[in-house]
Amino acid sequence: GENVEQHPSTLSVQEGDSAVIKCTYSDSASNYFPWYKQELGKGPQLIIDIRSNVGEKKDQRIAVTLNKTAKHFSLHITETQPEDSAVYFCAASGTNAGKSTFGDGTTLTVKP
Amino acid sequence: ETGVTQTPRHLVMGMTNKKSLKCEQHLGHNAMYWYKQSAKKPLELMFVYSLEERVENNSVPSRFSPECPNSSHLFLHLHTLQPEDSALYLCASSPNPTINYGYTFGSGTRLTVV
């Protein structure tokens, strides 16, 4: 089955700096890669996703890049703000459509 | 409001109790999921329902029993649980069970087994 590894497990940045979270996956058939943000006391919320026919996708301060050859994808947050502090999860979906395998999560802290 | 509502938000139950978790979505989605989120562990898929039919049981013990009476509602019936079953139980939905889409999650039920 699919295996997703996520790094780092914790990340602390100063407000205004950039943050990068990286994930690798094992199943070359995976073709959909969502990212979720989970705030305290809430369920994960989809913030951006990318499909395997695209190398990069951007939505305001958030971008995701995908390297299919190396089987890794990354989340980039620019101009971080304290409200970006949360746990971020990457996931990968492939041959078993509708079923996502999640990474372990990254706790991001943005210091004001 | 995320569009997926879970009740109760918190539940404390003894090991001999029987309780049920409820999930409701009115997004018109056709797939619903139960995930378990424990401290220091990744999200664990428990069950997948596609158009009210269970399509996956991810080796979950029989003390967890799902039910999907219609495409908008999903239940997780609990009985004779163990303390290690204490976790956040998340319900999610997605538009189409055969095409990869992101999930819409509920806020979860925080379960404590004493």
Largest interface: A-B, 25 and 27 residues
Dominant shape of chain A: globular
Oligomer type: heterodimer
Distance between the termini of chain A: 41 Å
Total strand segments of chain A: 11
- How many separate helices of chain B? 0
Which residues of chain B sit in consecutive blocks of at least 5 with pLDDT less than 50? none
Estimated helix fraction of chain A: under 10%
Order of helices and strands of chain B: EEEEEEEEEEE
Percent helix of chain B: under 10%
Mean pLDDT of chain A: 94
Class by helix and strand content of chain B? Answer: mainly beta
Q: Pick out the low-confidence regions of chain A.
A: none
The main sheet of chain B comes to: 7 strands, mixed
Terminus-to-terminus distance of chain B = 30 Å
Task: Give a brief rundown of this model.
The complex is a heterodimer of chains A (112) and B (114). Chain A is mostly beta strands and 112 residues long. Chain A is 0% helix and 56% strand.
Question: Can you characterise this structure?
Answer:
- The complex is a heterodimer of chains A (112) and B (114).
- With 112 residues, chain A is mainly β.
- Chain A has no helices and 11 strands.
- Chain A is 0% helix and 56% strand.
- In chain A, the strands form 2 sheets. In chain A, strands 2, 4, 5, 9, 10 and 11 form a 6-stranded mixed beta sheet that branches.
- The termini of chain A are far apart.
- Chain B has 114 residues and is mainly β.
- Chain B is globular and about 40 Å long.
- Chains A and B meet through strand 4, strand 5 and strand 10 of A and strand 5, strand 9 and strand 10 of B.
List the keywords.
heterodimer; A: 112 residues; mainly beta; six-stranded mixed sheet; five-stranded antiparallel sheet; B: 114 residues; seven-stranded mixed sheet
List the helices and strands and how they pair.
The complex is a heterodimer of chains A (112) and B (114).
Chain A: E1 4-7, E2 10-14, E3 19-25, E4 32-38, E5 45-51, E6 56-59, E7 62-67, E8 72-77, E9 86-93, E10 100-102, E11 106-111
Parallel strand pairs in A: 2-11
Antiparallel strand pairs in A: 1-3, 3-8, 4-5, 4-9, 6-7, 7-8, 9-10, 9-11
Chain B: E1 4-7, E2 10-13, E3 18-25, E4 31-37, E5 44-50, E6 53-57, E7 64-70, E8 73-79, E9 87-94, E10 104-105, E11 109-113
